[in-house]
Amino acid sequence: MRCLAGLLSVLVLAGIGNEARADDDPLKPALALQAAIEKAIAKAEPSIACILVSRSDKYRDREMVAFQHIRPDGQPGHLGDFDFERARLKYEFDRTMLSLAKRLDLAAPEHVPDSYGSGVVIDTSGLILTNYHVVKDARKIYVRMPHQNGSYADIFAADERSDLAVLKLISPPENLVALPLGDAGKLRKGQFILALANPHAAGFRDGSPSASWGILSNLRRRLPGEANEIDLRRPRLHYYATLLQTDFRLNLGSSGGALLDLHGNWVGLTTSQAALAGGEAAGGFAIPLDARMRRIIDTLRRGEEVEYGFLGISLNNGSDSPIVRGVAPNGPAARANLIPGARILKINDEPINEADDLLFHIAANLAGTEVRIEFLPYQRGDKVVGKCALVKAFWPAAGPVIAARRPEPVLGMRVDYTSTLIRAAGGNELAPGVVVREVTPGSPAAKAGLKPESDIIIAVNGRDVNTPREFYDAAGKNPASLELLLSDPVRKVRIP
After folding, report:
1. 463 vs 52: CA distance, rounded Å
2. What is the third-level CATH fold of 309-392?
3. What is the pLDDT along the chain (496 residues), one digit of tens a residue?
4. What's the CA gap between 354 and 52, in Å, rounded?
C-alpha cells in the first residue's frame, strides 16, 4: 500500500536522521509500529467470525425439512441448523437428493457460499455482532471461527435502522473469545487504525480473517450515495452522519468485521460501502462503537427490539441550530416546556448544529430515556434547560420484528406507545394510553374485537396506563381475564 510505503520511508528517514548514535537501528521506529500492529491483531483475531449465508428456498422442501432442528414457535430469526449426516445416510444411493443436501450444508469446508460477511464475538455464550444487511432474508446461517470451529446460528435480534444484528450460535464452540467493546468517542482524525474481516469470503474455509490498516480519514460521515424512495421512507441512522471513514477499501465480505486502534481496542464495526450503497469507493466505512451505538448494541444483545426515541416536535432549520416549528401536545417536548420558536442548543450537553444532529441524538437515546434539553425560548435571551422522558418513534422497518425476548402476548395481544401512530415529526397530539400493536388470530383479544393500530387502551383493571411497561405490569402474568378501558370512543371491554 502507498500508505505503508510512505510511512516506512518517513520512519526510516527519522532513524537515519539520528544516526549520530551508532547503536541506533534505522528500522527501529518501523519495527515498533509493526510490533504494535501484530499485537493488536493477535488480541482480536480469535473473536472474528466468517459468516456464511444462504437464502435458498430449498430448505423448505418437504424432503429437506426433516434434517433441520428448528424451534416450533415459528418466530422470525429462528433458522435452525442442518444435519447433513442424517441426509447422507438416507440418500446414500440417491445422487440427486444427496447432491442437493451437499449444496445446503453450509458447515462443509468445501462449501462456497453465495452470500457472506464477517462478525465479532461479543459474548462467550455464542453471541455474534454483524451488520443486518449481511443476514437479511437469510434462510440459513453458518458462523465459522478461526481454526474451522463453527456453528449454525439463529438471528437473536436485528435492527434494520442501525444496520445491526446479533446472531446466537446454536452449538457454540467451547473456546470462544469475546472482544470487549471500545469507545469510538475518543477517536481522532488521522490516527492509525486496523481492520480484521473476511473480504470476498477469504476465510470461509478456515475462518482466518484478513488484516488491513491505514488511517482514520474522517468522523461523522453520511452513508455514501443518494437515498432512494424506500430509504427516505425507512431511513437508517447512517443518513444522519454517524459513520467512520477509513483511507483503505473495505470490499464485499468485510461488513461486520472489527475496526481496531493500535492498542487493539475495538472501536468500530466495518461496513462494506459497496454492499450498502451499491458502488465502489476508494475508502471504507465503519459504524462507531460510541455511547449511542453501544446503547443500541446492548439492546440487541439482550434480544430486545430497539425502540428509538421520539421528542414530538417539527423543525425549521436555523442558521446556527434547529428552531422548533411545532410541539405535539402531551408529548415529551411539551413536558420539557419547549415552545414554537425555541432554538435547541444541546441534548445531554451534546451541541446541536442542524436538524440531523437533533434527530440522531434523540433517536439514539431510545424510548424511556430521560434527556436534558438546553434551548433558547422565542424572543428571550436566557437559556432554559428542560428534562423529559422520550417515548417511541414511529420508524417503520421492513419485515417482522426479530427479537428473541419480546413481551409475551397478554390474552393474545401486544401493545405499544401511542406515539407510534404519529407519522409526522410533531404537531399531532400524543394520545394518552397504549395502542394495540398485534392481535393473535383466534385469541381472546381477537374474539373481543380488538384491532391493531386502531384501538387505544387507557386503563387496565382500573389502573391508568401510558407505556407498554405500565400495561404489562397492570395486566400481570398469565391473567385469566382483563377489564380494559378504551378511548375514541370511550368504552369498556372485558376479555374474555
Report:
1. 49
2. Pdz3 Domain (2.30.42)
3. 445 445 544 444 444 444 445 457 888 888 999 999 999 999 999 999 999 999 999 999 888 999 998 887 778 999 999 999 999 999 989 999 999 999 999 999 888 878 889 999 999 999 999 999 999 999 999 999 987 789 999 999 999 999 999 999 999 998 899 999 889 989 999 999 999 998 876 766 777 888 999 999 989 887 766 555 445 555 678 877 889 999 887 877 789 999 999 999 999 999 885 444 555 556 789 999 999 899 999 999 999 999 999 999 988 865 567 899 889 998 999 999 998 989 999 999 989 988 888 888 898 899 999 999 999 987 667 888 999 999 998 876 667 889 999 999 999 999 999 998 887 555 578 899 999 999 999 999 999 999 998 999 999 999 999 999 999 999 998 899 999 999 988 999 999 8
4. 40
For residue 113, cis peptide bond before it (omega within 30 degrees of 0): no
The reported pTM is 0.89
47-225+232-305, what's its fold? Answer: Thrombin, subunit H (2.40.10)
CATH second-level architecture of 413-495?
Answer: Roll (2.30)
In 272-377, beta strands by DSSP E: 284-288, 309-310, 313-316, 323-327, 343-347, 350-351, 370-376
- Cβ neighbours of 449 (radius 10 Å): 10
Q: Compute the Cα dihedral for 283, 286, 290, 293 and give only its sign.
A: positive
Determine the Cα–Cα distance for residues 285 and 263; give it in Å rounded to an integer.
20
